[in-house]
Design brief:
Elements lengths: L5 H23 L7 H8 L3 H7 L3 H22 L5 H19 L1 H13 L11 H15 L7 H21 L6 H15 L7
Helix pairs in contact: 1-2, 1-6, 5-7, 5-9, 6-8, 7-8, 8-9
């Protein structure tokens, strides 16, 4: 399959610029207080260009999740730990760094959106992040490192991770999300019999 044309590259760059400007505004104000015109002004594009790439502000939030998954998958393919625990730590760490880069206020907008929208992409078991963690947990159970139902362990780890991110948002990013996530992961995996105490 051939590479992108110049026009396709330009369209992708415009879409990313709109997305980045929107997330920047969400970090400064609340999602509800940012208008599409605000986003267009900051991105220096027309309203028509916005709607060419995004159907609504909500679509920008959805794009954020998909972009995170694409970036995580790309980093995963560049190299990841061979052992299942290392893989889980790697993925949870990627999520924490992504949220810290975005900032607590912008990250909170993602959670608020998922609470109110009908398509809860964050829970999709087939999204890369969720699927990769589940596969690492399945491998850990298969190898006798973890003990329990892989689906239940996956849901527990993902649920705890979401809760920690929410708490970090409530505290306006005042502590290291990465450190808190890794500490919780050690506690959780030792509960399921990993054999490594926190």
């Amino acid at each position: 399959m051939g590479g992108l044309t110049n026009r396709q590259k330009q369209a992708a760059a415009t879409k990313e610029k709109i997305f980045r400007c929107a997330v920047g505004l969400f970090a400064q104000k609340s999602y509800e207080n940012v208008t599409i015109q605000d986003i267009c002004t900051k991105a220096e594009v027309s309203v028509g260009a916005f709607y060419h790439h995004f159907g609504s502000k909500e679509h920008i939030i959805n794009e954020g999740y998909r972009l995170f998954d694409q970036q995580s998958e790309a980093r995963w393919e560049q190299g990841h730990p061979a052992d299942p625990l290392g893989q889980i730590q790697f993925l949870i760490g990627e999520q924490a760094h992504s949220m810290e880069d975005m900032g607590a206020r912008a990250s909170l907008q993602y959670f608020k959106n998922q609470l109110s929208c009908t398509e809860k992409y964050i829970l999709d078991p087939e999204r890369f992040f969720n699927k990769a963690i589940r596969q690492a947990i399945e491998a850990a159970v298969s190898e006798g490192i973890l003990s329990g139902n892989p689906e239940e362990i996956t849901e527990d780890i993902l649920g705890v991770s979401r809760g920690i991110i929410y708490d970090w948002c409530l505290h306006e990013g005042s502590y290291s999300l990465w450190e808190r996530e890794q500490k919780a992961l050690k506690l959780h995996t030792s509960y399921y019999g990993l054999g490594q105490q926190p």
